[in-house]
Structure formats: C-alpha cells, structure tokens
Amino acid sequence: MIGITSYVEPARFTVWEMTVALLPYTYVEQVVRAGGQPVVLPPAGEPAALVGRLDGLILAGGGDIDPARYGEQPGDKTGYIRKFRDEAEFAILAAALDAGLPYLGVCRGLQVLNVALGGTLHQHLPDVVGHTGHSPAPGEFGHLPIHPTPGTRLAKALGDDPVTVPHYHHQSIDRLAPPLTITATADDGTIEAVELDSHPFTLAVQWHPEAATDCTLFESLVAAC
Q1: Annotated catalytic residue: which of 89, 192, 195, 210?
Q2: Helix axes 216-224, 25-33, angle to 10 degrees
Q3: Using DSSP, how many helices (H) and how many strands (E) does the chain show?
Q4: Angle, nearest 10°, between helix axes 83-99 and 108-116?
Q5: Which of 122, 167, 208, 225 is flagged as catalytic?
Q6: How far apart are CA 60 and CA 58, in angstroms?
Q7: Catalytic: 215?
Q8: By CB count within 10 A, which of 50, 84, 113, 138 is most buried?
Q9: Residues 107, 122, 170, 192: which is the catalytic one?
Q10: What 3-state class would DSSP assign to 90?
Q11: How far apart are alpha carbons 182 and 201 in whole angstroms?
Q12: Which residues contact 141 (CB under 8 A, 6 or more apart)?
C-alpha cells in the first residue's frame, strides 16, 4: 500500500469547477505497474497518523515550499506556495523517516526532504545555471540527461550510464542537508537525486519519473516495501 501525497487546487472537470484534491494519474498508473496499491493522501487532517498503515510513501511534485522553512524570503519567481500542504507533508515525512518507511520523493518531494533535514533551495534555477532546460515552458517537460553515481540505490535501478529523463522544476537543492548523499547530477551541476544512507530506502529525485516510459524507480520502491 503506497501513499501518494496530492495537490489541493481549483480545477474544472465534466460540468464542475471547484477546489479539488488532485494528482496526475501517471503516479497512480506507475505504482500499479510496479505492483503496488496506490492510496491518494490529501493534505488534510493528520496524514502523519497514517504512516503505520502504509508500506511506502511518495511525496509528489507541486508548488514551491515556503522559503521561511529554510530561512529566506520568497523571491520574485517563487510561487504556488501552499502552507497547509507544507505542514502536512513535512509532518508525514518526519513520521515516515522515524518509522523507516520506504520513501520516494519526486521533484517537490526531494526538496521537502532536503529542507526537512536542514538544507536550502535555489529559488529560481535559471538564475543559477543560465538556461531554462529544466522547465522550458508552462506544462512542457524538458528532457535532459542525468548522471547516476555508481554504487548507489539509484544506479542499481537505472544503471551507471547517463539517462535522459523528463524534468519540470525551476528550483533545486542549494545547500545539501548533511545526512543526504548526492546520487545524480545534471550536466550543469544541478543536484538531481539524493539518498539517505541511514535508512533502508529513502530516495528522492528532482525529475519526474511518473512521466517516464518505464516504472523502474516505482518498482524499486515497491520491492523495498
């Protein structure tokens, strides 16, 4: 049973327009392909209390984390901050780490992990790397290679050679949280994956594996469960 965190946003569907707890269905499909049962977790109530009922946890992509959590003011390009989602996801992540629950962080899920453990973020990556390849246009994935670090969980899943993956992020890790290990980078030096060696399976990636044609990382998560 794999919990997946979700967005809460205004949405239109069939004849309705209202606030919705939603999640790209590709997350659901990838977990099912990997042999897991997906359970969507809205940022409401006390989701941290569910950790004992889950076999694994995925923190999905989404808007930017409130920079106050890493001691900064919001930059001009920082947006879609949802403090209620921050509160819910930082709480469920803490509970999952305490319980040793297998964890896969996706995009925002990597950033939550890094900030929760004491790291910081670049609030607008194009200002750092000088290009928009990681998020070329609204609603359009970039396709850039990442370089796994041999011997890591990520490399065991994807191999040691560069892999081109779908990106959609305008933020990234700045100061790495001390407990984390970098396990993949992009050509421009952007940190694209991290692991927490002190836990049985804690892996987070900056790209979007739910949009990939394979389900390798989801299979690794389910196998760890």
Answers
A1: 210
A2: 60
A3: 6, 13
A4: 70
A5: 208
A6: 6
A7: no
A8: 113
A9: 107
A10: helix
A11: 15
A12: 166, 167, 168, 208, 211
Closest to 195 in 3D by CA, of 210, 217, 179, 209? 179
pLDDT 10s digits, 110-152: 999 999 999 999 999 999 999 999 999 999 999 999 999 999 9
Residue 62, phi-psi category: left (phi > 0), alpha (psi -120 to 50), beta (remainder): left
Cα–Cα dist 46/62, whole Å:
19
Residue where the block lists tokens 């780490």: 97
Q: Which residues touch 214 (CB under 8 Å, ≥6 apart)?
A: none
**Ordered DSSP codes for 178-201:** TTEEEEEEETT--EEEEEETTSSS
Which structure tokens are listed for 152?
């890591």
186 DSSP β-pair partners = 146
70-106 exposure pattern, b = at least 16 Cβ within 10 A, e = fewer: beeeeeeebeeebeebbebbbbbbebbbeeebbbbbb
> What does the DSSP 8-state code read for residue 206?
S
User: Which residue has tokens 């359009």?
Assistant: 140
169 catalytic? Reply is no
> For the chain, what's the residue count?
225
State if pTM tops 0.90: yes
107 is catalytic: yes
Distance CA 158, CA 165 (A): 11
